[in-house]
What does this fold into?
Amino acid sequence: MNSGLLLVAVRLRGPSENSRETEHTLRLLNLTRANWATLLPNTPSVVGMLRKVSMYVCWGEADAGILVRLLERAQAWGGAEREEALKALGVENVSTLADKLLRGEVSLKDLKSVFKPRFRLHPPKGDLRRSIKRQYKQRGETGYVGREIEQLVSLMC
It folds into this structure.
């Protein structure tokens, strides 16, 4: 795995007889529903939680393209307008915010104080090419997918 600053995690599978421990871990990651995405710091503890729920989510490193797509779908707290929320963070548009997030000038904590910590996505257009019941290494869709997370997010935005 690369040591990128941010990870994007997407929940692909819904709650179907999950253990309490699995559901708790998904709740800690802000992935309580299928087709939701979230931005996470790339730390060993977060990667450990993602590995624990790897049969339900896929994740990979964030780049500017993914961040712009996700931040366009961001919802501000209290129903505020996106422009007002961006001004509260000291940026003018979504692409500037994405660049500042990648450089570490804006922290995830600051972002989550203005925007909700999850992004609601559509089901994938044209369906997924592989099974969501298998890991990526076994020709599935779940687990660590690296840079291919961008293709999945583009199908779901």
